[in-house]
User: Fold this.
Amino acid sequence: MAKLREITVSTQLKDRLAQGHPWIYRDRLSSNGDVATGEWVRVRCGGWTGFGLWDNRGPIAVRIFSARQLPDPRWFKERIQLAWELRSPLREQNCTAYRWLFGEGDGLPGITVDLYGDYAVVQTYMEGATILLDWLVNGLRSVTPLQGILWRTQHREETEETTNFPESKTQLLWGKIPPADITVKEHGLLVQVNLQAGQKPVCFLTIAKIVAWLGNLAEGKRY
Assistant:
């Protein structure tokens, strides 16, 4: 294994990093050096040390994954398992569609995973996440039986004229291609979803409680 490259940042960031803030913006670095996208780096800030993934595009240069160790497949699997256990109340309510991994909230910045029945949809928000896909697929499969895992990219595209998010691209990472339409259950509601179409996430699972509240409010009413 090549020697881990070190990045030193201003001590002005120490308090935020020590509190768990996972992002280091490019404009807070004195120099980008010759670090490659998808390369693990050790970040030093005063007496604080963390391990992050470098990205050469977009305003966020480093996403911190751990302040204790350099992430490896075992560490990755543990984060996925912990996120699965935290969502157990949803499964107890017979929800078959929900957000499994909340990116930064679950210690895996730049990555989200939504579960739709037997299919998982991975969405990444940085180019460097490509090196994590094998770890992610193996970790997801080790936690629960799945039929397929899809990958939707949402990387920032920058040019001299504009800065925008291009349309998401979906590809199969592992398993079977899902049917065109899948019916899932979300807080008692049956929802039909297409896992491969659309620019944004397949279904806005993060607002499930609001949808359920609106469903109760509208029960028995007609427009």
In short: The longest strand covers residues 48-54. The chain has five helices and 14 strands.
